[in-house]
Amino acid sequence: MQPNSTEIDGADRWRILVVLLGVIFMSLIVVSIVNVALPSIQLGLGADQSDLQWVLSGYALTFGIILVAAGRAGDIMGRGGIFLVGVGIFTASSIAAGFAADAMWLNAARFVQGIGSGLLSPQAIGMIQQYFRGEKRGRAFGYFGTVVGFSVAIGPVLGGLLIELGGSDLGWRLTFLVNVPIGIVAIILGVRWFPKPLFRRPPQSAPNATGRTAGWLWSLDPVGSLLLGLALLAILYPFMESRGSALWWALLPVGLVLVWVWLLWERRCSRFGHTPMVDLDIFRTRSFTNGSLIMSLYFMGMTSVWVLVALYVQDGQGKTAFESGLFGIPAALLAAYAAHWSGRRVSQYGRRIVIGGLLLALVGLAASIAVVLLHEQFGLSVWWLLLSLSFIGVAQGFVISPNQTLTLAEVPLEYAGSSGAIMQTGQRIGTSVGIAMITAAVFASLARWSWSIAVVIGFVLIALVVLVALGVAFKDQRDREKHTARRIELQRGQRAQLDISESHF
User: Fold this and answer.
1) What is the pLDDT, as a whole number, of residue 7?
2) Which of 344, 318, 470 is nearest to 397 (CA)?
3) Higher pLDDT, 98 or 321
4) Under DSSP, is residue 181 helix (H, G, I), strand (E, B) or coil?
5) What does DSSP assign to residue 314?
């Protein structure tokens, strides 16, 4: 069992949150900072295009594969302890990446770094669930969203500064080594401030298991972890290698079959009294299912926006990588502010904040399409994208953090880590599928049209995905209203029955 939130006081909760957010900042900034460092890595290590692709894909792949298993491990063994293990692995692999002698060494370090990030990420969401309630939980997730927005904004700028200061070889190494002091401080503060014990003995849930070790092992559901990990590998890999051999797409149906086998195994675990990796009953909670679907669709569409903007302003307009990074700064800062604002109000407005965010995303996409077309036809400055993309930044703040709060609100605490990891896995799959498909459509369009028309086609495809997410959000709002109406009707019936009973006396 995890400690109840009432076992720590308010000051301790916020100290824990400081550690969580510092580490989340560290794990997110490495994503945006590496994009800027790729040319220097290529020059410094003599890496080819395949090596550079795996600098990005290797991290994302191991991160996505380990998420759900790590979330469940934290649920039953102690979220604080697993979180600090993840921080330690992430920090050590950052040192290894910073001192990489060749591309193979760097990519091996990135694989391990993805494992560290995959271990710590679901624990952070689970610990916010565990230690915060009601309006305070919304505020905590709001701060979480603020850190996400700020890390996205500062990453390219910090990366460019470090490369400028360190030169072509030392500069890119500093983009990894900058994580090290944050990781060390987080481990020290986590050991001091996290509730003790950091690790707990898992329950021996396997009735036929012999020996203490076997009981602990079965409580972690190793078979389910392996099946889901292989399934996600088979699903994600073709999208990450989408420009490679067409044979990789044969893995996709294999992955879907493995998901089906995993579901059968999880049901079998529950039927025979074992502890499943994921309690499939959480999908009967409509708010969780709807919210997870909204998040997956949002990431499927909106993460491609920044890929298309970078391609358009650099390859289509001849801007530098540094100039390309500037286009996202206003949007990222507004996303940070919007996440903080909405986090304080999500308990009051609920799903309506998410619906408003999705509508703003559509406004931002439409405005960006207008800027690109006006630039093409009348020479309007492409820098007007700073304004149109700002709507998308506000949308991010209104969608991501509030949706996390609403999605996890009715999830049992003992599955907070694994359920949060399921939501993050949906984000990872949505991101991989969206970027692969939308960029493929854009590059195919370039064979016939200009960069402007190709990017407009990409933005239209993104808008269609966001429209589907908006439909799910409206459905969830209706479900919540119906649930509230039924609860009120039930309470009225109970009061009426009580009045009738009292009238007999």
Assistant:
1) 57
2) 344
3) 98
4) helix
5) I
